[in-house]
Amino acid sequence: MRSTRLRKFALAVAATALVLTPAGAAYAGSGPAPAPAGKGDRAAATAPTAQGNPESKRAQAAGVCDDAYQIGATAHIKRSGATVASVKQFYSPSCKENYGYLWVWDSFHTTAKPYDVTLGVFSYDQDAVLGKISHANTKQQEFWTQGTDTAEDCTAAVGTLRAEGAPLPNQAASEKRC
Predict the structure, then answer these.
(1) Which of 1, 31, 25 is nearest to 17 (CA)?
(2) How many Cβ atoms sit within 10 Å of the Cβ of residue 21?
(3) Element (H or E) spanning 148, and its range?
(4) What is residue 45's predicted lDDT score, i.e. its pLDDT?
(5) Any residues with CB less than 8 A from the CB of 1 and at least 6 apart, and which?
(6) Residue 42, pLDDT score
(7) Of 2, 15, 69, 97, which shows the fewest CB atoms inside 10 Å?
(8) Distance of alpha carbon 121 from its chain centroid, rounded?
């Protein structure tokens, strides 16, 4: 009698598990191990991108945390009506920091003479640009600020680009985020 009850209980548990388990579900450790990254894969993982890659060499040199992701809308720096650069703000949940990011568009980068770039994170709460960086006479395409302790502030990334021969820089600020 007891073994019959145990068998019925075991069947009920198994049936419940089958009903509650979605078809095609994957669980940690249930699939094949990922293939080890080759040199080409690592190079792609650390390559700079227009979208912003927190694992790029320049991002890592600036101390950007690997889990940083874009927050807010991208802003565009325009010169004579043409977009020459993008300005974005990133946030890292693990480091609790904000970062500014500026990418010079290929259409400008490949034809322009050296230019000047500034980038920072503007804190509306502190009324200040933090983590500001400046590069004069550069042909660099990717720029990151160091992390700013502004996770609790309303912020935006702010960037400028001054083309050679121009008396003033063109500028943009990403969407304000609180």
Answers:
(1) 25
(2) 10
(3) none
(4) 79
(5) none
(6) 56
(7) 2
(8) 14
Average pLDDT over residues 41-65: 87
176: which residues sit within 8 A by CB, 6+ positions away? Answer: 72, 124, 154, 155, 156
User: Which tokens is 146 given?
Assistant: 């160091």
Closest to 171 in 3D by CA, of 99, 84, 52, 55: 84
- Give 19's contacts (C-beta < 8 A, 6+ positions apart): none
The 170-173 sheet, strands edge to edge: 128-138, 115-123, 155-162, 170-173
Residue 41 binned pLDDT confidence (cut-offs 50, 70, 90): low
DSSP structural state of residue 161: E
Residue 130 and residue 97: Cα distance in Å, rounded?
A: 11
Task: Give the range among 4-8, 117-121, 156-160 with minimum mean pLDDT.
Answer: 4-8
Q: Position of tokens 């001054």?
A: 162
Q: Does this model's pTM top 0.70?
A: yes
- Region 120-134: mean pLDDT is 98
In degrees rounded to 5, what are phi and psi of residue 103?
Answer: -125, 125
Q: Dig out the tokens for 67 from the structure.
A: 């889990």
pLDDT at 17: 38
